[in-house]
Amino acid sequence: MAAPEPQTLDRRALNRALIARQLLMERSPLTAVEAVEHLVGLQAQAPDPPYIGLWTRLAGFTIEELAAAVRARQVVRIVLMRGTIHLVSARDCQRLRPVLRESLERSLISTFGRKLAGADLGAVAALGRKLVEHEPLTLGALGAALAGRWPEHDAFALANAVRNRVPLIQVPPRGLWGESGQARHTTAESWLGAAADPAADPAALVERYLAAFGPATVKDMQTWSGMTRLAAVVRQLGPRLRVFRDEQGQQLYDLPGAPRPSGDTPVPVRFLPEFDNILLSHADRSRILTEEQRRLVFTRNGIIRSTFLVDGFVHGLWRIERERDAARLVVEPWSPLGRGARTELKAEGARLLSFAAAGRTRTEVTIEPVAQEPVA
What we know:
By secondary structure, the protein is of the alpha+beta class. The chain folds into three domains: about 15-190, no CATH class; about 200-255; about 290-365, no CATH class. The protein is built from 14 helices and 13 strands. It has helices spanning about 10-20, 30-40, 50-55, 65-70, 90-115, 120-135, 140-150, 155-165, 190, 200-215, 220-225, 230-235, 290-295, 340-355, and strands at about 5-10, 40-45, 75-80, 85-90, 170, 185, 240-245, 250-255, 270, 305-310, 315-320, 325-335, 360-365. The chain has a five-stranded antiparallel beta sheet. A hairpin with a 2-residue loop joins strand 10 (about 305-310) and strand 11 (about 315-320). The longest helix has 27 residues, at about 90-115.
């Protein structure tokens, strides 16, 4: 007898699955470190967005909880998925980096191949490791030191050769809320006192991705991770995965027991920080924003702007304007808001200001008028 046709999941069903797994349906009781692991890291080009990303997902989260985890080396900032800086747990640093090694080395060659042509990258990585383990260095200082040995090559390219071939973490105060200063690097092994996990497994990475972002296509998995050839990994997982289809007929994979709420499940408004992974982790992002909206969020200089969700979907942008003793949260919707959504945004926005602008004596939430035609 022929196997039954896979169930089709529409856009709203995929949205609700993503919202639930991203801890946005209701605030979770997880600790900061537990949530960072569940989410398989938080993208973290800037130090502060992960704090807001956890605040919007966790009950009772405080700035000090994550800052203490950074200082205690329970979480670290390191280049991982897509060749970008992520905040991950110490354990995930040791088990994710080996799986991503090939994709990071491929990214290095595609970006800096010409500038590194003829360089012995093994020797560059070995010297770079020695230098940063002697003293944490900025990439600029590391590149300058390496250029003394390889003057015919670009210093920045040499520093990136080390960062992509050696697991370099950014040491505090980088990663602490409100702290400034350049990022200084040392090796994960010296910082954590442990080597990478030799049993690291791409199949485990795929399963963890699905737990946080599924259901998903193979292309989605590869977009999130920066890896290739994951179709073979999915075939290896075989009966451990359920198969669905989206409305375009693409095959989706998922964990059997993962949450898949009904598409009409109510979802509260949520404020998302810059670079939130929920917007970056699928090839097809239509489960949370349209292509027209994506162009408003993703800037040409690589910034992923702060957004807010209404009914689980991106509905506009937000920013905080700070003065000496005052802070104003400016909400910029792309299409008209109902009275209930406006009330909810005002209340949630006030909570965001009490978190992100604590100590200001005057705070205000302003919802701007729609400045353009509604975005489909």
